[in-house]
Amino acid sequence: MSEAPMIEVRELNAGYGRFHILFDVSLEVEPREIFIIVGPNGSGKSTLLKTLFGLTKVYSGSVKLEGRDITRIPPHARAKLGMAYLPQVGNVFAELTVAENLKMAGYTLEASELEERIRDVLEVFPFLKQKLNAKAKTLSGGQRQLLAMAMALIREPKVFMFDEPTAGLAPKAAKEIIDKMLWLRKEKGKTIVLVEQNAKLALEIGDRAILLVSGRVAYRGKASELLADKELGKKYLGLKG
Ligand SMILES: Nc1ncnc2c1ncn2[C@@H]1O[C@H](COP(=O)(O)OP(=O)(O)OP(=O)(O)O)[C@@H](O)[C@H]1O
Ligand SMILES: [Mg+2]
């Protein structure tokens, strides 16, 4: 029996009110895949991620999760079905402590289950153990991204959708984020959808990718082939030819 794609997008047209941003976008994300979305500034990468999570207006087309049509269901229902969306900024509660953030992330869980999940994620992100009573705003940018990942992991989603998690981070911090993604896939069997401005970094670790240009799919295929495509890379991704 063949497995349904984790996410299947067909001929999607979406935007904000009357601002039509995405045009006829189709893609498939397989289970346990690292799927990359790249493209120039303003090409619609964030809009696509938001659309997958139900935050924009869909004019036509469909989004399916494991074969189930979710095009018209609200974000909280998608979260319940196993989608986690991590926006670039504002993905932790700055004024709350790390411990409080972790509890907030799992507020729908039973107390005993929440405790167990927090214990588990602290094993995955051990640096958080020393930071439990620190306010999230005192963490470094990289640590905040890792806290956001830990918060998402508490709900045990099937799919993690990241919007530029390494933006503004030093290479070492960016690598730590990427390593945790690879771990999520390898050890936890999670599916990753990653929007990145650092196209090289993302395409090196990705399985498949799309290139968005002005809201349309300009490339769809293997991440490694897009990385090797001198013309597209130079024209749209700032990669050296
Ligand atoms: N809330 C909104 N209302 C109307 N238009 C919007 C809104 N958010 C974004 N846009 C427009 O949608 C287009 C795509 O924006 P989007 O943020 O998806 O691009 P992006 O590829 O993520 O860009 P970046 O690389 O800068 O993050 C842009 O023209 C932008 O101005
Ligand atoms: Mg964006």
Instruction: List ligands, each type once.
Output: adenosine-5'-triphosphate, magnesium ion
Alpha-carbon distance between the two ends: 43 Å
Helix content: 25-40%
The profile of the biggest β sheet is: 6 strands, mixed
Strand content: 25-35%
Number of helices: 9
Strand order of the largest sheet: 6-7-8-3-9-10
Give me the CATH superfamily of the domain at 1-82 and 181-241: P-loop containing nucleotide triphosphate hydrolases
Which structural class matches the secondary elements? Answer: alpha/beta
> Would you state the CATH class of the domain at 1-82 and 181-241?
Alpha Beta
CATH architecture of the domain at 1-82 and 181-241: 3-Layer(aba) Sandwich
Apparent shape: globular
Radius of gyration: 18 Å
Elements, N to C (H/E): EEEHEEHEHHHEHEHEEHH
Count of DSSP strands? 10
Poorly predicted ranges? none
Can you tell me the CATH topology of the domain at 1-82 and 181-241? Rossmann fold
- What is the typical, i.e. mean, pLDDT? 95
Query: Quaternary status of these chains?
Result: single chain
How would you describe the overall organization of this protein?
The protein is α/β, with parallel strands linked by helices. The protein has a domain at 1-82 and 181-241: Rossmann fold (3-Layer(aba) Sandwich), CATH 3.40.50.300. 37% of the residues lie in helices and 27% in strands. It has nine helices and ten strands. It has helices spanning 45-52, 75-80, 98-105, 111-124, 141-154, 171-188, 199-205, 223-228, 230-236; strands at 7-16, 19-29, 34-38, 57-65, 68-69, 83-86, 159-163, 191-195, 208-213, 216-222. The strands form two sheets. It has a six-stranded mixed beta sheet, sandwiched between helices. Strands 2-1-4-5 form a four-stranded antiparallel beta sheet, with helices on one face. Strand 7 (159-163), helix 6 (171-188) and strand 8 form a beta-alpha-beta unit. The termini are far apart. Bound molecules: adenosine-5'-triphosphate and magnesium ion (MG). Adenosine-5'-triphosphate is lined by residues 16, 19, 21, 39, 41-47, 197.
